[in-house]
């Protein structure tokens, strides 16, 4: 088992001092430690393809090798820049990819990770990117880093190190915050929207929504839980809103929305009259260890309005949210809710039924709203 400190010392010994990427729970303990370090350059990217671009810029400016961290689920976002920008047949950009291996064959994981877990090594082979599976012995790990860097610089191409889950020793967890939290917010909103369809973003938002429906002794047919495809919730909601008459409510997160910001002008351009975008803004990737997003410096109200949203509201207290009439906003509308990080311990995951079964339930529910 590796400690985050040992890992960073090995990287610095090999003159790898620039980091960019998108957080993942498999790399959480390393990233928690990395966030506290002042002697490294660290740029948090909104999506994995963006991180490849940032890393490319660093190499062009310095001639040194950057490190890009990501979950294997995000490999799809990197395929274009890895093959059309960084590939040795194009610009030949050395970089080291740290990739956590969700859905590794032979392990138990969530259904959305199964396919990518199976094909992760095959993707690297298909892209002709040399890779190794990280070794938990520090001496072996140091050899891997040295050899991969040598190969990357010599052949002017990306290389990858795949991390199995549980390889890192646990770092201190983030502190608890007081204030309006996501679960309380969801409960208030569910009271307001009644029988309307909901599209809920990946991560703890969907898990809390699932638990709330159970606590309210309701079924789950009204909710489409986006258990993978981070950043797609608002676009799924747009596709539904263009095809039904009932208002569609999208429960989104700041990290998710930042990943594919192009969704906002697309929604604003088509201007559905039955679309309410609820942004649950806690300014962190909570599911992966509370790593900060860049939301803290975002002017979300201005961005929604510039994208063509008709009605934009911001609330930051339970009282303000309780007083807001979300059902009579001009559409497309956006409600930005300022939250603090935090969720209940041992939060469950959607269970009992498969994603396909839940899809069928949602489609049966929404059929009555078809335009």
List keywords for this structure.
single chain, about 375 residues, alpha/beta, Rossmann fold, 2 domains, 6-stranded parallel β-sheet, 14 helices
Structural topology:
Blueprint (H helix, E strand, L loop, with lengths): L3 H10 L4 E4 L6 H8 L5 E4 L3 H15 L4 E5 L3 H12 L8 E6 L13 H13 L4 E3 L4 H18 L2 E6 L18 H12 L4 E3 L3 H12 L7 E3 L7 H9 L6 E6 H6 L3 H8 L4 E7 L2 E2 L5 E2 L7 H8 L3 E5 L2 H6 L9 E6 L16 H12 L5
Parallel strand pairs: 1-2, 1-3, 3-4, 4-6, 5-6, 7-8, 7-9, 9-10, 10-14, 13-14
Antiparallel strand pairs: 11-12
Helix pairs in contact: 1-2, 1-6, 3-4, 7-8, 11-12
Note down, in words, how this protein is organized.
This protein is of the alpha/beta class. It folds into two domains: 4-163, Thiamin diphosphate (ThDP)-binding fold, Pyr/PP domains (Rossmann fold), CATH 3.40.50.970; 182-369, Thiamin diphosphate (ThDP)-binding fold, Pyr/PP domains (Rossmann fold). Helix content is 40%, strand content 17%. The protein has helices spanning 4-13, 28-35, 48-62, 75-86, 114-126, 138-155, 182-193, 204-215, 233-241, 254-259, 263-270, 300-307, 318-323, 355-366; strands spanning 18-21, 41-44, 67-71, 95-100, 131-133, 158-163, 198-200, 223-225, 248-253, 275-281, 284-285, 291-292, 311-315, 333-338. The strands form three sheets. It has a six-stranded parallel beta sheet with strand order 2-1-3-4-6-5, sandwiched between helices. Helix 11 crosses helix 12 (300-307). The chain is elongated and about 60 Å long.
């Amino acid at each position: 088992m590796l400690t985050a400190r040992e890992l960073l010392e090995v990287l610095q010994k090999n003159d790898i001092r620039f980091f960019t990427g998108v957080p993942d729970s498999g790399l959480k303990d390393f990233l928690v430690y990395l966030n506290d370090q002042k002697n490294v350059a660290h740029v948090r990217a909104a999506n994995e393809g963006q991180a490849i671009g940032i890393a490319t810029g660093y190499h062009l400016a310095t001639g040194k090798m950057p490190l890009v961290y990501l979950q294997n689920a995000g490999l799809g976002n990197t395929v274009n820049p890895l093959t059309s920008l960084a590939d040795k047949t194009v610009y030949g950009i050395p970089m080291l990819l740290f990739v956590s291996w969700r859905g590794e064959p032979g392990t138990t994981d969530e259904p959305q990770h199964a396919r990518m877990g199976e094909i992760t090594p095959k993707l690297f082979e298909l892209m002709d990117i040399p890779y190794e599976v990280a070794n938990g012995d520090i001496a072996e790990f140091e050899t891997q880093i040295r050899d991969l860097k040598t190969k990357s610089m010599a052949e002017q191409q990306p290389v990858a190190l795949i991390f199995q889950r549980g390889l890192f020793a646990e770092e201190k967890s983030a502190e608890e915050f007081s204030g309006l939290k996501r679960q309380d917010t969801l409960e208030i909103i569910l009271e307001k929207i009644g029988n309307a369809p909901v599209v809920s973003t990946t991560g703890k938002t969907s898990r809390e929504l699932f638990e709330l429906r159970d606590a309210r002794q309701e079924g789950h047919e009204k909710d489409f839980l986006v258990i993978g495809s981070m950043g797609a919730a608002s676009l799924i909601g747009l596709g539904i809103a263009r095809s039904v008459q009932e208002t569609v409510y999208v429960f989104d997160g700041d990290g998710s929305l930042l990943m594919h910001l192009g969704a906002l002008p697309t929604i604003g351009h088509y201007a559905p009259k039955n679309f309410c975008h609820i942004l649950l803004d806690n300014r962190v990737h909570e599911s992966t260890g509370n790593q900060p997003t860049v939301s803290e410096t975002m002017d979300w109200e201005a961005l929604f309005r510039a994208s063509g949203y008709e009605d934009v509201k911001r609330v930051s207290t339970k009282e303000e949210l309780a007083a807001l009439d979300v059902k009579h906003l001009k559409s497309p509308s956006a409600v930005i809710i300022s939250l603090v990080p935090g969720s209940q311990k041992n939060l469950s995951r959607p269970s009992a039924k498969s994603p396909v079964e839940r899809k069928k339930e949602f489609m049966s529910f929404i059929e009555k709203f078809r335009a």
